[in-house]
Amino acid sequence: MFKNHIKIAWRKIKSQRFYAIINILGLAIGISSCLLITLLVVDELSYDRFHEQAENIYRVAEDLKFNGERKEYVFSPALLADALRSEIPEVIEAVRFRTYGTQLLRREGTLQNFKEDDITYVDHEVFDIFTIPILEGDPTTVLKEPNTLVLTTSAARKYFGNANPVGESMILDDAETFKVVGVCEDLPANSHFQYDVFLSAAGLEELKNAMWLSNNAITYFLARPDVAQAVLEEKANALFRKYAAPEMQQIAGTTIEEFEAAGNFLRYNLQPLTSIHLQSNMVGEHEVNGNLAYVQIFGAIAIFILLIACINFMNLATARSAHRALEVGMRKVLGSGKKELVRQFLTESVLMTVIAFSLALLMSWLALPAFNELTNKSLSIPLSQPIFLGSLVLGILVVGLISGSYPAFFLAAFEPLKVIKGKMSNQEGGNRLRQVLVTAQFTISIVLMIGTGITYSQLQFLQEKRLGFEREQVMILRTNNFPGSFEGLQNQLKALPEVQHVSATCYLPVDGYCEGDNAIWEKGKNAGTDGRNAGFWFADYGYVETLGMSMAAGRYFSKDFKSDSSAIVVNEAFVDAFGWEDPINKQVEIYGGEDTTIILSVIGVLKNFNFDNLRSPIEPLAIQLVEPIASTAVIIRFDAQAGVNAFVDKVSATWEATAPNFPFEYTFLDSQFDEMYESDQRLGQVLTIFAGLAIFIACLGLLALAAFTAERRRKEIGIRKVLGAGVHQLVALLSKEFLMLVTIAILIAVPIAYYFMNEWLQDFAYRIELQWWVFALAGVVAIGIALLTVSFQSVKAALANPVNSLRSE
Question: What is the pTM of this model?
Answer without folding.
Answer: 0.81
